[in-house]
Design goal:
- The chain is an alpha/beta fold.
- It has one domain: UDP-N-acetylmuramoyl-L-alanine:D-glutamate ligase (3-Layer(aba) Sandwich), CATH 3.40.1190.20.
- The protein has ten helices and 13 strands.
- β12 and β13 form a beta hairpin.
- The radius of gyration is 18 Å and the shape is globular.
- The protein starts with 6 loop residues before the first strand and ends in a 5-residue tail after the last helix.
Length: 314
């Protein structure tokens, strides 16, 4: 890397195809609705949101040499993300994420084609390691395969690593490297996959967090959906932030916005007690947007959302 980046995001970038119905979903039938395409992928979305929050993140990912890749790259550059280390691979297809949402905005089902991420391996990542060590923090998502995680996490020291668990199927790849993770953001299913603790309540989330701390994770942030977010540190501090009621247009991207908010807090030196409510405000703004990267997201918008949350009239 020719110049130092304060935060480097390494993970998935995809073209997202999001279909939403206009009425309750009827299986085995044609449902009226609308379809939109946009740049996506967990890592890419986090980088996009960080740029909206005033940072200059660098993104490391792999894409095909196709029209989807051009759409993704153009949108990512336009957001203010450094894409010089986004590698395009001949003969590969750009990752694609297809999701179907009901009238309530919640996802009913999704299919991801992320096979190209197997090419984001040590061959690509090893030459970047000296530069990655100079970043103030690294952000990884579990679209990365085991060999990539090993290449990035086998150093005993380095910048703080913040990780998005992505899915219950993919997050077990983290198990050999939990002691290298500074902050882990996961949902209930992902936490259960990593710990064996069925997470249905705040108490369950606290139990899962204790297991993760015992395996070396310094900070744990567990999203319990409509219940709220539990946070916990290896030093014994913990808290629970209830979810605030907002009009939900689309749930896609809310978790990515939450992680971007946590990264912002890390860069500001905030404790989790301060960072988590601020990050939740990022997610709330995103929930109210029809797209995964809310155009309305900004430092000023997050501060307004936080102020509204503490207003006596709410």
């Amino acid at each position: 890397m020719e110049r130092q980046a304060a935060v480097v995001v390494i993970g998935g970038a995809s073209l997202d195809i999001v279909a939403s119905t206009e009425a309750p979903l009827v299986l085995s039938d044609s449902n009226p609705g609308h379809v939109q395409c946009a740049a996506g992928g967990v890592g890419r979305n986090v980088a996009h949101n960080l740029a909206r929050l005033g940072h200059a993140p660098a993104l490391v990912t792999v894409l095909g040499m196709d029209a989807f890749a051009q759409t993704v790259l153009e949108a990512t550059r336009a957001a203010g993300v450094d894409t010089r280390w986004c590698l395009q691979l001949p003969g590969e297809r750009t990752a694609t994420y297809l999701s179907l949402h009901g009238v309530d905005g919640d996802m009913a089902v999704a299919i991801n084609d992320m096979a190209i991420l197997q090419r984001l391996d040590a061959t690509v990542l090893a030459p970047l390691r000296p530069q990655l060590q100079t970043a103030r923090c690294l952000v990884l998502d579990c679209n990365l395969h085991a060999a990539a995680l090993e290449c990035l996490l086998d150093e005993p020291v380095g910048p703080p690593v913040l990780v998005d668990a992505v899915s219950a199927i993919k997050c077990p790849r983290l198990k050999p490297w939990l002691d290298r993770i500074h902050t882990l953001k996961a949902n209930a299913l992902e936490a259960a996959a990593l710990t064996g603790v069925a997470v249905q309540s705040v108490d369950d989330a606290q139990a899962a967090a204790r297991v993760l701390h015992a395996q070396g994770v310094a900070q744990v942030v567990l999203s319990l959906g409509a219940q709220g977010v539990l946070w916990s540190t290896g030093d014994g501090e913990a808290g629970f932030c209830p979810a605030r009621a907002v009009p939900v247009v689309n749930t896609s991207g809310a978790g990515d916005a939450l992680l971007a908010g946590l990264v912002h807090g890390q860069l500001q030196g905030w404790p989790l007690a301060q960072a988590v409510p601020w990050a939740m405000a990022c997610a709330e703004i995103t929930l109210q947007s029809p797209v995964a990267n809310a155009p309305e997201l900004s430092l000023a918008a997050v501060e307004r959302q936080c102020a509204m949350a503490h207003s006596p009239s709410r």
